[in-house]
Amino acid sequence: MEKSQLREMVKKQLEELHSDTFIKGCADIHRHLFTYSKWNKAKTIAVTISRGREVDTKNIIEEAWKERKNVVVPKCDPKSNTMTFRRIESFYQLETVFFGLREPIVSKTIPVKPKEIDLMIVPGLCFDQEGYRIGFGGGYYDRYLEKYHGDTLSLAFSCQLFKRLPRELHDVPVDGIITELGVEK
């Protein structure tokens, strides 16, 4: 299957998840994440603001703050197809931008360099057993991961896992994947 077909198939499967299954799955993923060694040692966590049927990150951000971790969120520049991460200390430091994404308000946040991030939670729609992923199609994370050398992790439902995905030369696998069933890689 092509990447676009895989994206559409997984989006449909996620939309068809019963609400109770989705909520319980997110809670199980959170439970596995919060006991994961790389989470526990990280002082600065990079994470997106979830929307729709993505694994909920609001609770992850709140737990990070509770544990006195720094939380950094991506700010995309659609003109250059690049992104930077900016530290947030409140959800009030976010604004809604293109495609309904929630991003940091530049005037209310400070930028963080890649080397300052301990653990990056990388979003995606499809993942394979070696940590390769199919994202949402913008390539922002692929470009960022070229210069990021810290720990990476993705969160997904088991229906998002595949034996092997199509790959391109610039694709960078994540170090681990956590699903509702536990750590998969």
Radius of gyration: 15 Å
- State the low-pLDDT regions, or none: none
Q: Into how many domains do the coordinates divide?
A: 1
Major sheet: 8 strands, mixed
Sheet/helix structural class: alpha/beta
Distance between the amino and carboxyl termini: 23 Å
CATH hierarchy class name: Alpha Beta
CATH topology: Rossmann fold
> What's the helix count?
5
- So, the CATH homologous superfamily? NagB/RpiA/CoA transferase-like
The helix/strand series, from N terminus to C terminus, equals HHHEHEEEEEEEEHEEEE
Q: Helical proportion?
A: 25-40%
Shape descriptor reads globular
Mean residue pLDDT: 94
Short summary of the structure?
By secondary structure, the protein is an alpha/beta fold. The protein is 27% helix and 26% strand.
What are its keywords?
globular; 185 residues; single chain
Written account of the structure:
The protein contains 5 helices and 13 strands. By secondary structure, it is of the alpha/beta class. The protein has a single domain, classed as NagB/RpiA/CoA transferase-like (Rossmann fold, 3-Layer(aba) Sandwich). The strands form 3 sheets. The protein has an 8-stranded mixed beta sheet with strand order 6-3-2-1-7-10-12-13. Strands 9-8-11 form a 3-stranded mixed beta sheet, with helices on one face. It has a two-stranded antiparallel ribbon with strand order 4-5.
